[in-house]
C-alpha cells in the first residue's frame, strides 16, 4: 500500500505510526507545498528543477514554508537553500510560532502531546543514550566555594557571552494553556536568535532584558532548560511542570528524557525552619518533611529525585538551601 505524501513526511521526521502528525502536516501545507518539502534540501533553482515548477513560484513557496516553520534556510556554498524540518522538535517549536497558526492547529498539537507523545518519548529514551535537553541550575543557589562554575552550568553566563539574543513565546504553554505562567520567556541564543528575528517569530532583546527574564522565571518557579551539549546552545527555555513536553513525563513516569544539572540541592537542617516553601516549589517531588529528635519538623532532599534546578532555593527565607556538585563536567556531552 502506497503511503501518501503526508505519511512520508511523518516518516522523514521519525514519527512513523503517528495518526496525528500527518494531519498536522495536512493542515499547514497543501499537496504542492508538501512535494516541495520532500524535494528538499536545495536552492530554489535546484528545487524548481526537481519539482518541475517555475522558479518564481518555487521561491515564493519556499519563503512561505519558511514563514510557516516547516522549512529552514541553509547557507552552505554561499547561496541560500532550504531544508525541511528534521524532527518532531523542530516541527513542533517552529510551526506553533507561525503567526497565523489557527487555534484548531494548536489544539491538534496538544492532542498529539497528550495522546501520542508519551509513547514516542518512551521509545526515544530506549534508543538514545543521552537526553536531548538538560537543566541549568539557578545561579545564586550554587555553592561556588567548592567547585568551578562552568559556563555550561550558568544561564547568566550563556546570556552574557551571547552575540545575539531574542525571545519567543513558550510553545508548550501556547498549545496547552494549563497555567498562567508567562508566555514570552523562551530565550533564543546566537544562531537561533538570528533565525527568530529573520523569520519574525520573536523579537530581539538586550542582555539586560534576558537576565531579567531569567530572574522573573526563577522567582515564579520555572526551570531553566537548554540543549544537552557542552556549549552555549541555541536556547534557554523556562519550563513549568504542567505544560512542558518533558517535565510531566520525568515527574510522573521517571523517563530520562531530560538530564539533571551537575548539581544537587542540600538543606542545612540547622538553618531550616520547616516553613515548607521549598516543598511546595519543588516540581520533582524531591523534598520531604522529617521530624528531628527534638520534635522539630524540617525539610530534607531526596537525592535520587533531585534534578538540581535550584528553584527551591530562590525563596528560602533562612538561606538553608544550596547546590553541591555531584556530577563531573563530562556528564554533559561534548
Secondary structure elements and pairings:
Layout: H1 5-12, H2 21-28, H3 31-39, H4 44-51, H5 55-68, E1 71-74, E2 81-84, H6 88-96, H7 103-115, H8 117-127, E3 133-136, H9 155-160, E4 165-168, H10 171-176, E5 186-189, H11 191-199, E6 203-204, H12 207-219, E7 223-227, E8 235-239, H13 247-253, E9 258-259, E10 263-267, H14 277-281, E11 287-291, E12 297-301, E13 321-325
Parallel strand pairs: 3-9
Antiparallel strand pairs: 1-2, 3-7, 4-5, 4-6, 5-8, 7-8, 10-13, 11-12
Report the uncertain regions.
none
| Secondary structure tally: strands | 13
| Subunit organisation of the chains | single chain
Specify Rg, calculated over alpha carbons.
22 Å
Strand line-up across the major sheet: 6-4-5-8-7-3-9
How much helicity do the residues have? 25-40%
Please state the average pLDDT score.
92
Question: What is the number of helices?
Answer: 14
> Given this structure, which CATH class of the largest domain is correct?
Alpha Beta
Structural class: alpha+beta
Order of helices and strands: HHHHHEEHHHEHEHEHEHEEHEEHEEE
Biggest beta sheet attributes: 7 strands, mixed
Proportion of residues in β-strands: 15-25%
Structural domains: how many: 2
Distance between the termini: 43 Å
Amino acid at each position: 500500500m502506497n503511503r501518501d505524501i503526508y505519511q512520508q513526511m511523518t516518516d522523514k521526521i521519525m514519527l512513523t505510526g503517528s495518526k496525528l502528525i500527518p494531519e498536522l502536516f495536512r493542515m499547514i501545507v497543501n499537496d504542492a507545498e508538501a512535494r516541495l518539502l520532500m524535494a528538499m534540501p536545495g536552492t530554489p533553482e535546484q528545487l524548481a528543477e526537481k519539482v518541475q515548477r517555475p522558479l518564481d513560484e518555487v521561491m515564493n513557496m519556499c519563503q512561505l514554508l519558511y514563514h510557516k516553520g516547516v522549512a529552514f534556510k541553509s547557507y552552505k556554498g554561499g547561496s541560500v537553500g532550504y531544508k525541511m524540518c528534521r524532527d518532531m522538535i523542530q516541527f513542533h517549536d517552529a510551526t506553533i510560532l507561525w503567526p497565523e497558526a489557527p487555534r484548531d492547529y494548536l489544539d491538534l498539537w496538544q492532542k498529539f502531546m497528550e495522546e501520542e507523545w508519551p509513547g514516542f518519548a518512551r521509545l526515544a529514551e530506549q534508543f538514545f543514550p543521552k537526553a536531548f535537553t538538560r537543566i541549568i541550575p539557578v545561579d545564586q543557589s550554587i555553592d561556588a566555594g567548592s567547585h568551578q562554575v562552568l559556563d555550561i552550568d550558568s544561564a547568566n553566563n550563556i546570556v552574557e557571552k551571547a552575540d545575539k539574543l531574542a525571545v519567543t513565546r513558550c510553545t508548550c504553554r501556547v498549545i496547552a494553556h494549563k497555567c498562567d505562567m508567562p508566555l514570552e520567556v523562551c530565550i533564543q541564543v546566537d544562531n537561533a536568535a538570528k533565525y527568530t528575528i529573520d523569520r519574525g517569530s520573536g523579537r530581539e532583546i538586550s542582555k539586560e532584558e534576558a537576565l531579567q527574564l531569567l530572574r522573573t522565571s526563577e522567582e515564579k518557579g520555572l526551570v531553566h532548560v537548554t540543549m544537552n551539549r557542552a556549549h552555549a546552545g541555541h536556547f534557554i527555555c523556562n519550563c513549568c511542570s504542567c505544560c512542558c513536553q518533558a517535565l510531566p513525563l520525568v515527574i510522573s513516569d521517571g523517563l530520562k528524557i531530560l538530564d539533571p544539572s551537575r548539581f544537587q540541592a542540600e538543606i542545612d537542617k540547622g538553618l531550616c525552619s520547616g516553613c515548607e516553601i521549598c516543598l511546595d516549589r519543588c516540581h520533582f517531588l524531591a523534598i520531604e518533611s522529617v521530624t528531628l529528635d527534638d520534635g522539630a519538623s524540617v525539610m530534607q532532599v531526596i537525592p535520587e529525585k533531585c534534578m538540581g534546578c535550584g528553584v527551591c532555593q530562590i525563596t528560602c527565607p533562612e538561606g538553608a538551601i544550596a547546590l553541591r556538585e555531584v556530577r563531573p563536567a563530562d556528564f554533559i556531552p561534548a
